[in-house]
Amino acid sequence: MKTIVFVFLSVFLTKSCQPKKESVATAQVIETTKMVENSDAMITNNVQTATKAEYEALSRGSFCKIVFQDNQIMVYKDRNNENTGDVVKISQAEILEISDLLKAINLNELPNLKAPSDARTYDGAAHANLTITSNGKVYVGNGFDAGNPPAAIKKIVSKLVSYSEKK
């Protein structure tokens, strides 16, 4: 009896752990459909629709996350509830300015940027980071002190942080 139960459970558990292939194909079809629907928008607003920029600064007592995506800015101040963010209204000119700042960044070099200071290592400053998602690829930068980003990303970081102060 134990052998039968063991064989049954082994077969059942190995079958349930295998990925479902039809769901992956369905997801690819849905994604392709979305890309076709948005292709005109992506041609006219290439950076805005295909790029997401996330700035995050945190320490033991503070948290701030600013996300630029889909032509809007979201500001999150509560680390325990990231579903409640504030939408900051931005003009078309500001969207274009952010897009230009993002285009100026060499995304392949983002992970290699050296922070100009190290105060975050001894709680002298909040730990900050910039993550950019472009065309489905995620580029995560090295951490840096909040308020003192590497020179290559200083303009975009300053622009994003300014929206957390506008609210």
Walkthrough of the structure:
This protein has helices spanning 2-17, 21-37, 39-44, 46-50, 92-103, 154-166; strands spanning 51-58, 63-69, 72-76, 86-88, 127-134, 137-140, 144-145. With 167 residues, the chain is α+β, with helices and mostly antiparallel strands. Strands 1, 2, 3, 4, 5, 6 and 7 form a seven-stranded antiparallel β-sheet that branches. Strand 5 (127-134) and strand 6 form a beta hairpin. The protein starts with a helix and ends with a helix.
Indicate the low-confidence ranges by residue numbers. Answer: 16-49
Average pLDDT, to the nearest integer? 78
Q: Which series of helices and strands comes N to C?
A: HHHHEEEEHEEEH
Shape assignment = elongated
Major sheet characteristics: 7 strands, antiparallel
Total of DSSP H or I helical runs spanning 4+ residues = 6
> In whole angstroms, how far apart are the ends?
67 Å
Number of strands: 7
* Structural Rg: 21 Å
Estimate the helix proportion, in percent: 40-55%
Our estimate of the beta-strand percent is 15-25%
Q: Which secondary-structure class do the elements indicate? A: alpha+beta
